[in-house]
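Q: Trace token order:
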Amino acid sequence: MADLSSRNPDWWRQAVIYQVYPRSFADADGDGLGDLRGVTQRLNHLATLGVDALWLSPFYPSELADGGYDVVDHRGVDPRLGTLDDFDALAAEAHRLGLKVVVDVVPNHTSHQHPWFQEALRAGPGSAARDRYVFRPGRGAHGELPPTDWQSVFGGSAWQRVPDGDWYLHLFAPEQPDLNWDNEEVRADFRTTLCFWSDRGVDGFRVDVAHGLAKDLTEPLRDVGGIGATGEEALLRVPPGSHPYWDRDEVHEIYRDWRKIFDAYTPPRTAVAEAWVPDARRALYARPDELGQAFNFEYLQARWDVDELREVITGSLDAARAAGASATWVLSNHDVVRHASRLVLPAGTDENAWLLSGGRAPAIDREAGLRRARAATLLMLALPGSSYVYQGEELGLPEVADLPTEVLQDPIWEQSGHVRKGRDGCRVPLPWTTTGPSYGFGPGAAWLPQPASFASYAVEAQAGVEGSTLELYRTALRLRRKLLEGETLTWTPDAPAGVLDFTRTETWRCVTSLGAEPLPLPPGEVLLASAPLPEEGVLPPDTTVWLA
């Protein structure tokens, strides 16, 4: 297949990448589930928006035990979403429009329906087939206890017993057995997968759970005990690289091997790590001889606070620079509460409790949330590095917090015994039109119900409307292309309290007010503002301005 990607090998360093969650983007065949042909039909929206690339969340064969991250075939397309021919057509149209294509790769685990796992179940204890996964006998007099105290990210034990008495490891849902990356057959198969998609014109990869592949499987397996089993807080309680299954030093050998594959293509394929690890450790994944970039979750998790944001921005830029990478910035994705809602939740709010309340405790001001989200977006787009935009944020979509429990699809709801509502509220299908059973998502109803308020957020309602969130994104991305130069910023030393103020070059300045009172606007021509400026020379609260 001809290489249709850009000849610029560094396109990713300051790109804007748009995340498409295929099942919620556009439905072409009317079954209520988004599909690849739906994405292809709507690619012009991304080209008009002005992004550089689209990142496709998993579209592989899956029973959807975890929204597509339970993969049955890493080199196939789920029949409900299309075919390999549909994927090829999508990639060709994206490249025709000047868009790069990034796909998810899910190397930590497979689906329990994967042929390898089904073979492992049939083969029995001690077999070569079981060695591709992590099977162990149980503890206790009759092997009735899990091999360790390791916990699933989704809640409960990370071990599941099979009828012959063995237990297998699943750091996520039981339907997602973990692969054994000490097994050379596993490593070879993923080399084949990376080549398979690269040969089809894929420009880059987003690596799911990049920090989870390497595990300490020396016997006896050790408990995690009081250090905690999940999350970054667990990693802070042990020497770096020594947790039994998160962020082990050995994982970097895997990515150095992958880099050889990426660099064999012209231009080299790119990659970005999803690694929920402390800042200093994240930089290791982004080294040029490994994946090249890593998601910056500190920025996503930062409160709307001047000191916290400045510290995160400075630290992130320093860490990226030390790794020889460019920084990454993200405000929303398919796993977190949308930032148009999250940024106005009071400090210390338990987001899960808020979701369980249907978004009513506390109630939030959607207008204030959108204003803050728009300001946060212009701030993010002014920062050096790559910005990752989640589908629908260009419409200002809020979290759908009041989904009835009977429609929830996220396995977290069941795995947690109905105490964690999960991530469905940010995965509700997009509204394209102001009318129709699914607001243009498809000809019929959508797989998750959309609120009536989505009509006012639809692309049709915002396109061409001055001041709309969609037009703000379009204008910002168009300006950003013209203004980009270098990968550094300089903080303004005498910025007022409550203000983030920096210059990118001598001709471009970004000023964000996070305070509660209007402030004098610094001198300069206003290129773009996230909200109307009520009077000349005044910067309102929760507003970002780009100045020449």
